[in-house]
Amino acid sequence: MTSGAVAVRASEMGEAERRELRAARGRGLVIALLGAGALWAASGAFKVAAIFSFWLLEQGGAAWTITTTVGMLWLVAGSAAIIIGGMQAGFGARFPWRQSLFVIAPLYVAAILGALLDGQVANMTGVFSGSLELAVPITLGALAGILSERSGMLNIAIEGKFLVGACAGAVAASATGSVLAGVLFAVLCGMAVGYMLAWLGIRHQVDQIIAGVVINIGAIGITNFIFLRVLAKNTWLNTPPTIEKIKIPFLSGIPVLGPLLFSGTPYLYVMLALLIFFSYMLFRTRWGLRLRASGEKPSAAATVGIDVIKIRYHSMLLAGALAGTAGSYLSLSSAGSFQMGMSAGRGFIALAAVIFGAWNPVGAFGAALMFGFSDAIQSLMSILGVDVPPQLLNSVPYIVTIVVVAGLVGRVRGPAAAGQPYTQG
After folding, report:
1. Gap between the Cα atoms of 180 and 292, Å rounded
2. What CATH homologous superfamily does 125-408 map to?
């Protein structure tokens, strides 16, 4: 490399570093201003009580109560935001600002919730356990998105797979009287949709975004037709046995944590197991290395003997199975039957979780928890009769999605070859 080329490269690197520093200082300023706003809100809220309770052993039983003031919550949240904003501005791009959001966000949520409840008691065990359950389909959908996109295939059709899995699961479980049959049929249908997307994108090299949108629209039309023309007239095909919560012996008896973590549905335990499994498989095994190589540089992966096409087909089938399982959760555990459009945008929220989690299962689970928490909070406020328009409450999870994707994600680099057609020589 000539001295001139070296100088140009150094200049480009210097400019990139300056841009990152300016962006970091801007973020730090915004976070610090949010902190200042919280301190201002604290000045007039020290007389408003904030009461949070946690069930010790069982729902409706003895509770552990934490009592403070809304002003104190705002004070803690504002102080933390100012400190983190200053560290962001001082350390620049080296400061892990996304991780700091998981520190600031709960403090602000607690302060806002206390202010809205205005002295009413909030049972947080119900909120947190509800958040975990609501995060189940989003996490499974996010895992589907991570596996497919890490292999190089954009997976816009998660929403459609949710609908197909929900419909198939409800019909199969109703016809056989077995929830296991319902889940298995939902998995198979999800895999079929995943294969269709892979066939269009790999075999015929159709634009993967367009193919995913077409599949989503087709899933909406097909499931609506089945509901209106078949299930509405034959209700026995839409009355499946439901999957109830299971208490894990001994562990469910742990105070506070027992009702929260060890009294959930089988879907919750399966989701946590899959989260651990795929976190290990993606980053600690040869299979994960080959999968990631197929999504980063498929031509280079092929030169060392990796069958990129085979890996992409397999990842899409696996992603379809995960999304189909998530769909069966909606009809067999959450709602107890299939309804039109019951996925309600969760597939797209799962895609937002993929991006926010930087294509990492653990990060995506954290994002799914955030979305689930926002959904659980709006349910709590509806039950307690908080004076907020119901339309605004119902829109909270989607507002959080927009804020996360548009305002907080920043420059997140996904798999380099995701969405790009590839022809194996």
Report:
1. 32
2. ABC transporter involved in vitamin B12 uptake, BtuC (1.10.3470.10)
The helix or strand, by DSSP H or E, that contains position 311, with its residue range, turns out to be helix 308-329
154-213 residue pLDDT tens:
999 999 999 999 999 999 999 999 999 999 999 999 999 999 999 999 999 999 999 999
**CA separation for the pair 253, 280 (Å, rounded):** 30
Residue 394's contacts (CB-CB under 8 Å, 6 or more residues apart) are 378
Q: pLDDT per residue over 383-392, tens digit each?
A: 777 767 767 7
Residues contacting residue 54 through CB under 8 Å, at least 6 positions apart: 63, 64, 65, 66, 123, 124, 125, 256, 260
How distant is the alpha carbon of residue 81 from its chain centre? 24
| pTM for this prediction | 0.86
Q: Where in the chain is the domain with CATH 1.10.3470.10?
A: 125-408
Are 48 and 118 contacting, i.e. CB atoms less than 8 angstroms apart?
yes
